[in-house]
Amino acid sequence: MEAVLPTGDKCERRAVQLGLLGAALEAYGKHEILETIDMSAFVAEQRPNVPDWKTGKLQTPVEHLYVPANPSVAGTGASNRD
User: Fold this and answer.
1) How high is the pLDDT of residue 7?
2) Contact at 8 Å (CB) between 2 and 8?
3) Domain containing 45: what range?
4) Contact 57, 49 (CB under 8 A)
5) Is 45 part of any domain?
6) Deepest in the core among 11, 21, 23, 49, taking most CB within 10 A?
7) How high is the pLDDT of residue 79?
8) CA dihedral 24, 2, 35, 21 (to 10 degrees)
9) Phi-psi group of 8: left, alpha or beta (phi > 0 → left; psi -120 to 50 → alpha; rest → beta)
């Protein structure tokens, strides 16, 4: 599904595929995730505000860039499988 702004314009987004296997996948699923938030009710509540988004009534989540505390681990998430 293509991401679209309230204006109807396309929204540039990037998906990240982690490619975790074995112990890394298990650790991620059982220990690393701190919280999963179901946004369904919020989205349903905001849906009527989409046509009037210019009024400021439409609330949207804010995305923040994640920067690892240890720079040496940045970019090491890619899988080297052939």
Assistant:
1) 74
2) no
3) 35-61
4) yes
5) yes
6) 49
7) 41
8) -10
9) left
Q: Give the SS3 label for residue 20.
A: coil
The enclosing H or E element of 24 equals helix 22-27
pTM of the model: 0.48
Q: What is the pLDDT along the chain (82 residues), one digit of tens a residue?
A: 567 777 777 877 666 777 888 988 888 888 888 888 898 999 899 999 988 888 888 998 777 777 778 777 766 654 444 3
d(CA 19, CA 78): 7
The domain tally of the chain equals 1
User: Is position 49 within any domain?
Assistant: yes
- Domain-located, residue 54: yes
Q: Is residue 13 part of a domain?
A: no
